[in-house]
Structure formats: C-alpha cells, structure tokens
Description:
Layout: H1 2-8, H2 11-42, E1 48-55, E2 60-70, E3 75-76, E4 83-84, H3 89-102, H4 118-126, H5 136-140, H6 153-161, H7 169-179, H8 194-208, H9 212-220, H10 222-225, E5 230-232, E6 249-250, E7 253-254, E8 270-272, H11 274-286, H12 293-300, H13 306-309, E9 315-319, E10 322-329, E11 333-338, E12 343-349, H14 355-369, H15 381-404, H16 407-412, E13 420-423, E14 429-430, E15 446-458, E16 461-473, E17 476-489, E18 492-502
Parallel strand pairs: 13-18
Antiparallel strand pairs: 1-2, 1-12, 2-3, 4-8, 5-8, 6-7, 9-10, 10-11, 11-12, 13-14, 15-16, 16-17, 17-18
Helix pairs in contact: 2-14, 3-8, 3-9, 4-7, 7-8
Amino acid sequence: MLAGALLTGDPSSLRTSRRADARQADSLGLALQRLADSLVAARPRLPGLLIAVESKRHGRTWTVAAGLADTARKSPLRPDQPVRIASNTKTYLAAAVLRLVEQGRLSLRDPLARHLPPALDTLLRRDGYRTDVITIEQVLSHRAGFNEHPAVPSYVARLRTQPRYHWTREEQVTWLVDSLAPVGPPGAQFRYSDTGYTLLGAIVERYTGKPLGPAVRELVGYDKLGLKQTWWETMEPAPRGIADRAHQYLGGYDSYGIDPSFDLYGGGGIVATMGDLAHFLTALLDGRVLAQRATLDTMLAPRSSELAGYGLGIYGTEARGQRGHGHGGFWGTTAMVFPGAGITVAVAVTEQAESRPVANAVMGAVLGMFDTSAQPTPWNAQAAARDSADALATFRENLDAIHTRDKARYLATYVHTERLVRHSPTALETGYAGWPAITDNAWPDTLIVKEMRVAPIAPGVVYGYYRYIGVPTPGDTLTGVSTRVFVRTPEGMRITVTASWNDAVAPARQ
C-alpha cells in the first residue's frame, strides 16, 4: 500500500510542492538582485556588479546585474554580458594540462625542458632558470622559482602609455628574463607567476598543434558542458549573438580598449559570462571535466599554504564555515565552488580597486541566503534596520579606537579568527600581528571621517564605507576610501573584512 502510494503520488501535493519551489526560487532571485543593487548603491566608485549563483539543490542558476556596463555611455549592465576573466583562466588551462596528463602525453613530474619550445627554453636558461629541474607540477602550483613579467614596472606602465600595443608570448618572457632574476630554486617557495602559465600555454599548443583557445576548448570539453558564452579572446571568434563585453576599470581607468595580448597566453585570455564561469567550476568539481577522480584530487591538493591552499590552478577559501575552491582574476572576477553548500558563486566587480571587499561580501551573503538546512533566511526590513544600527555602532567604536590609538578596543570590533583579510596597496593578507594600523608608529596623526554610510546586503551582513582625510606624518596629507563588511556574531556585529586605499595610490595587483 505504501509503495503504491509513493509510486502514484498525489497530484495536488506535487503541484503544491512545485509552486513552493518556484516561489522560493523567485525569492532567492529577488534577494540576489537586492544584494547587487545595495552593494553598487553603497559604493560610489563601483560602476557595476555581476553575480551568478548555481545551486545543485534547486537545479538552476541565477544571474543578476547592477550598475553600468559603460560609465561613459551610461549604459546599464546586463546579467548576460561577458567580461575578461583574467587569472580565472588559469583553472581552465590547468585542467587542460591535466587532461594531457590523463592522455599520457606528459607527466606532472616531467622536467619543463622536455616539453618547452626550444626558443623559450633557451631564454629561461640564459636567466639562470633550471628548466631541466623545474617540473610541470611546480609550474602549475607556482613553486617553480619563476618571477613574473607583470611584476616589471615598465611592463605595467605600458598598459597606460600604449594600451593597444600587441605583445607576443616570446616578448613577455624576454621582458621577464631581461628585468628580473629567479626568486629561488625550484620547489623552495610559492611565488605567483603569470609567466609560468604563459609557458604552460606554449606546451599545450605544442602538443595539440592548435592555438591555445581552441586547444583548451577541446581538452576541457566546452561543447559537452554547454559553455556557449565562453571563448579565448582573439584566438576564437566571439559566439554568435553574444552581448557586448562589459567595461572593466582600474582605478577609474577604462581597460576596454587595452589589447588582449597584455594578458592572453595562459595567465589570462578567456572572456565569459558569470553564468558560464560558475557552470565550468561546478562541472570541474563534479568530475565532468577530468576523466578520473584521482586527477581532480591531485588538482585540489594544496601545495602551499598561500591563498588558503594553492593546488594546481585552483586555490581555497573559507566563508561562513564553508570550504570553497576556485580562483580570482585581475580585472575583478572571483569564482568559488562550495561543495558543502551545493552552490557555486561567480562575481565580476567592474572596478578592480573594489574587487576584494565586494567579492568577499557577496560570497558571505550568498552562503547566508542559500542556507544548507533548506529555507533561506527571509529578508526582513525590521531585522535589516537593526543590523544597520548595530553595524553603525561597531563602525563608530572602530573609528574612535583609531582616533584614541586604543589597540584593545580596535581589535575587539573584529571577528577573532586565525586570519583576517585586509586589502590595501601595502598589505594584501596578513594576520593581526602584521597589521600596519596597530603598530605603535603607524596610527595617523589626524583622521577626518567623511560620508560614513552602512547598507544591509543580506540577513546579518552589512556593508559600510567612509571617505577619509588622514595625516600619517606631519605635512603629509592623504585622502581615500575605507570599507568594512560586518556580520552578526554571538558577540554582536563584528568586522570580518576591511579594505582601504589612498586616492593617489593604485591598488595592488591581485
């Protein structure tokens, strides 16, 4: 009797269940749109924000947009607009290299010299790189001892003076060897290197006999994954009917017209929508890109503690107690899979200077919405007002502690985790002891706070910012922006992320 009831089912209850699921999906979509709108509204310098969330439990993807796609034309940003994903490309390339490993065409333990084109090998040896010792695995995990060509000041300077200059792969490697020495022997330390991935791109081209874009497309399997809005810029034609690429900014500078060869040969190069980026990462972690689960385990296994555990073209993160895997990109993209929560989040922050704090705020807020226990926390105006008031009180306490140089009160306004993320031109990720703001000689002599605001972005999460005029030393005046992300804890509203930069200082490269 029970089996028969289960097999036949009650049509009315099934319809009710479907309607409930549809209402929940609609409410989640509205909450994501409110999140995007509130973050853009709270950040006057943020042109636009794209968010895509893929949920296994719901079997669907939400994509939302807020702000402008082009600040000059004032055109609104649309959810289907693609962007340059920069270093998120490394995850695709690493997967392609691992597919070559699975095919038996190379091994992770192979020396780099065995697979590099001879001209590139000669260049590297000239600069003291032991390509006969460096392994493919060390290059994938940024432990080969490579410096990187974007670290050469004159290379980045040309970005502004000659934005349409067309670089070749060989030029970029030459720029490195002529300007910077190796950072150390192979395997001795982690050093993030775009140049290493540029070399891996050359190896993929050599073994496939194809340009890098089509080669990665075939090895990763874009077609079987349904990645219809992903392509390698200039190496492949843009998909038919694709929306115009959104403009991305660097300290207000519009990067749209920069020649893609600046970051094209493996360290970056892919253009994609956030929906496609989220779907690729979901498929990768689900085992639909690599042929063997053991290969995926090899890819995810951390080789270094940096970036919460860097593996092979992919690194870790922690948010709301969930472990995530993914990557970020220089122009403001971040994508993370949270297997425990069953969701993937992809974010494009179209002002690079805003990317880290905004992406962190999105990740935490989305995990709160898609609660793994089932129902998302409802949006409640009364609770949001309470969160805002409590966050504002914590914000004022934090700033008063800076004014009075009270370290104990200052630290008490933060969530006390082992590591606290801080982003500024001089400090990317440091623990409490490394904070310049809490050393005896680093407190500003004067700090004038202007335009302090807070905005609730999700249940228990509030975003805040202020403009400042600071005098770090007598006669030296700085102006800039400082932001905070507050979350509700048992102790009250506490800060989890802070980000600051001066108007005259370009944000550090991610």
